[in-house]
Amino acid sequence: MTYLTDDQIVKEEVIRKPLVTGAYDFKQLTNVVSKPVESKPPSWWLIGLVCSLSLLLLLKAMLVYLVWEGVGVWGLNNPVGWGFAIVNFVFWVGIGHAGTLISAILFLFRQKWRTAINRFAEAMTIFAVMAAGIFPAFHIGRVWVAYWLFPIPNSMAMWPNFRSPLLWDVFAVSTYFTVSLLFWYVGLIPDIAMIRDRAKSKIKAKVYGIFALGWRGANRHWQHYEKAYLILAALATPLVLSVHSIVSFDFAVSQLPGWHTTIFPPYFVAGAIFSGFSMVVTLMVLARILFKMENIMTIHHLECMNKIILATGMMVGYAYGMEFFMAWYSAYEYEAFAFINRAFGPYSWAYWIMISCNVISPQLFWSKKCRTSIPIMFIVSIFVNIGMWFERFVITVTSLHRDFLPSSWGYYSPTWVDVCTFIGSFGLFFTMFLLFLKFLPMIAIFEVKAVLPEANPHPEDH
Amino acid sequence: MEQEQEKESNNKYIFPKWSNSIPKLIMLLVLGGLSSIVFVFWFWFSPKNLEVGYEPEQPIPYSHKLHVGELGIDCRYCHTNVEDVSHANIPSTDTCMNCHSVIKTDSEHIKKLKKSYDTGEPIPWVNVHMLPEYSYFNHSRHVNSGVGCVSCHGRIDQMEVVRQVESLSMSWCLECHREPAKNIRPLDKITDMEWVAEDPIALGENLIKEYHVNPKENCSTCHR
C-alpha cells in the first residue's frame, strides 16, 4: 500500500477555470453589478417595459373577459376539457424549476459557478411560478371561490378532497413558491444592505433599508445568514423534485392512456429542469450583453448550463422513447393507439415539433464550439422553450382528443382568448423581470466576491 | 454635550430604534388578521347567524299558533301537495274562504281576504324559507321518507308569526343526510308537531330499513 504525500495531492488538484474574468477587484465588482440599480435605466429597458406592460394589460383584459363571459370563451369542450390553461401552467411551472435547482442543489454540491447566476435564475423562477399560478386559478371557472381549495371552516361542510392530485398540486406549488421566495429574499439581504449604504438619496436609503432588515454585516449576522441559507437550501432541494412530480400526478394518477404512466414524475422533473435552464440561458445571453457583464456571467457559466441542457434533453428524449416502448410492451391496445395517434394522428405536427426541438436541437451541444457559441445557444434555448411548450400540449391534448369511443372524438383548437392569455402571461413575466433587473442587484455580489482570487490569498494552504 | 453626542449617533442611522419592533408587529397583524377574517366569515357570516330568526311581516297576520296549535288543523289541509311534489304550496285564497266565508267576516283582515277572493288577485305572502336556485330540494321525497315537518320548520304550531328556525345551510342539510336516524319518524306522525319518540335513534334505525331511506351525499343529489 502506498499513500500519496501531501505534495502529490496538491499537484494532482484540478486547475479550475476562473469564475470571474477581467481582473476585477472587490470595489470594481460592486460597481459593475450595482450600476443598473444606481444609474438611469437605458432606453432598451424602457422600451421593453412598455412592451411587457402592454402585454400584461392584455392578460388582464383577457382574464376580465373570461370572468365576465365564463370559461366558454376558451376552446375547451368535450372531449378536450384541459387545453391551453393546463398546458401553460405546466410550461411556466417547469420554467420555474431552474432557479431553485441552481441555487439550492448546486449550493449543496458546492458548485461555485452557481454564484454568478443563482439570483438571476431564482428571480426567473419566482416570476415564472407567478405566471403559472394564474392559469389553474382561472381554470377552475369561478375564480372568486378559489378559497375552497384551502381547508377553511365554512357553513357548506365542504372540505378539500385530499385524495385528488389537483389539490396536492395547490399545496406543492404554493409551498414551492413560498420557499423559493424566502430563499431568494434571504440571499438578497446582504446586497440590499449594500445598495442602501451606497444610496445617494435619503428615500432610496429608507426603501432599501426596510428590505435590508437592519443588516450591518456583523460577524454574528453572517453566522446566522450562513445557517439560514443552508437550511433553506436543504428545504428547497426536495421541493425541486417534488413539485414537478406532483404536477405530473395530475396526469399520471388518472387512468387515461397517454397519461397513466409511471415514468411521468422523473420525466417531468427532467423536462422542467431542461426548460428552466433554457429559459435562463435565453435571458442570460441577453442580459450579460445588455448590461456588459460578460466578465461575471462568463462563457464558462453558459457552457456549464448547456451541458445540463444536453443531459436533461437526453433524459427527456429517453422518456419519449420509453413511452413508446411501454405502449408496445404492455400489449394494451388503447395504450398503443394513444401513442401511435400521438405521432401520426391529427396532432402529429405538434409531436414532431416537440421531437425536433427537444431531442434533436440540443444534440448540437455535444460540440464544444456550439456549446460556447452565443448565437447557437440562444437559438437552441429558444427552440427548447418552444419544444417544451409543445411537449405539454402533446401530452394534454392528444391524450384527450380521441376518447375510447369514436363518437367522442374531436379536435381541439384554441380560441383567440386562449392565445392572447398565453401571450399576456409573458407580459407578467417580463414586467416582473425587468423591474427586478432595474431595482435589485441581479448578481449575488457578496457570493461572487468569495470566488475571486483575492478571497483566497493562500490557495496553497489547506 | 452628552445630548449632542447622542443626537449625532442617532443621525447615523436611517431608522429610529423603535422600528426594530415593526417586523414583529407585522407578523402579529398578518397572523391575527388572517385568522380573524376566517373567524368573522365562519361565525358572523354563517347562515346560522344571518338566516335563523328571519320573521317577515305578512300581508295578513295569519296565526299558525291559532289555526294549528289551538284549532288543530293539519298542515296538509292548506299545504296540500307537500306529499306529492317537490314544492310545498302556499294555499290559494279559496282554501281560506272554505271557513272564512262564514267565520269572522267583519274582521279588517278577513275583508282583505274577501277582496282577494272576489277580484282573483292573490295575497302576496312573503316567502320565509328560501333555498338558492342552484340547490334542488324535494318536499315529497323527504315527507314520504319519514322526515317530519317539525324537523326543519320547528314548532310552527307555537308561532304567531312564522320564523325560520334552522339555518338551511349546506352543512345543515348534510348533517341529516349523514345521520338521518334521529329525524326519521313513522309516516302517520309526519305532521304531528308535538310527537317525540321515546328512543328516536333506535326507532329511526328501524324505520330507515323499513322505508328504504338512503340519503345521498354526492354533489349532483342537490346540485343538478
Properties at a glance:
heterodimer; A: 462 residues; mainly alpha; globular; B: mainly alpha; 2 domains; 12 helices; 46% helix
What does this structure look like?
The complex is a heterodimer of chains A (462) and B (224). Chain A is mainly α and 462 residues long. Chain A has one domain (37-455). Chain A contains 17 helices and no strands. In chain A, helix 5 crosses helix 6, helix 9 (219-252) packs across helix 10 and helix 13 packs antiparallel against helix 15. The mean pLDDT of chain A is 89. Chain B is mainly α. Chain B folds into two domains: 2-45, no CATH class; 62-71 and 82-89 and 128-222, no CATH class. The longest helix of chain B is centred in the first third of the chain and has 22 residues, at 22-43. Chain A binds chain B through residues 152-158, 196, 202, 205-206, 209, 213-214, and chain B through 14-15, 20, 23, 38, 41-42, 46-48, 167, 169-171, 174-175.
Summarize the structure.
With 462 residues, chain A is mainly α. Chain A has helices at 6-12, 26-38, 43-69, 84-95, 98-108, 118-139, 165-198, 202-212, 219-252, 264-290, 299-329, 333-344, 348-360, 368-371, 374-401, 416-439, 445-450.
Q: Return the string of H and E elements of chain A.
A: HHHHHHHHHHHHHHHHH
Unreliable stretches of chain B, pLDDT < 50, 5 or more residues? none
Per DSSP, what share of the residues of chain B sits in E-state strands of 2 or more residues? under 5%
Overall spatial form of chain A? globular
Q: Quickly give the structural class of chain A.
A: mainly alpha
Give the N-to-C terminal Cα separation of chain A.
24 Å
Shape of chain B: extended
First-residue to last-residue Cα separation of chain B: 82 Å
Unreliable runs of chain A: none
The pLDDT mean of chain B sits at 89
| Cα Rg of chain B | 29 Å
**Computed CA radius of gyration of chain A, to the nearest angstrom:** 24 Å
- The portion of residues assigned to helices of chain B is 40-55%
Overall number of structural domains of chain A: 1
